[in-house]
Amino acid sequence: xxxxxxxxxxxxxxxxxxxxxxxxxxxxxxxxxxxxxxxxxxxxxxxxxxxxxxxxxxxxxxxxxxxxxxxxxxxxxxxxxxxxxxxxxxxxxxxxxxxxxxxxxxxxxxxxxxxxxxxxxxxxxxxxxxxxxxxxxxxxxxxxxxxxxxxxxxxxxxxxxxxxxx
Length: 166
Hints:
By secondary structure, the chain is an alpha/beta fold. It has helices spanning 15-27, 47-57, 74-80, 93-109, 122-125, 129-135, 141-145, 151-165; strands spanning 3-8, 30-37, 64-70, 85-89, 114-118. It has one domain: HUPs (Rossmann fold), CATH 3.40.50.
């Protein structure tokens, strides 16, 4: 069985993440979508909210599993879940350099795990979770953000913003 891990904070999950996940579902027998927990980071959504959202978005994909991990190298987590591959998405040359370096470190830690890099289509390749969060607030933000996240996530972001304004 070919199993891969696709990890991220997914705060929030974007259409770019979904694109990578769908390609991963096509390429591998099983894809573990792993929400990484970084105690240094301030999240918009709790771990439980992110896990529930991703599960809901992937409910029709039985070969996708949603999990979380904390305080371990991704390559070690991949080994724990018996994955032979780490799946990554690259949006820019900056991302590429970072992922290339991480791939080399991961290969030092475990040469049996292969990193696969996918490049999303142009219309979603420039958008990160941080970018989406930075767009929220100014007048008309909904029309911009709506293009970059799944509808479920857009509704969650809108509710969160409405709660802040009260």
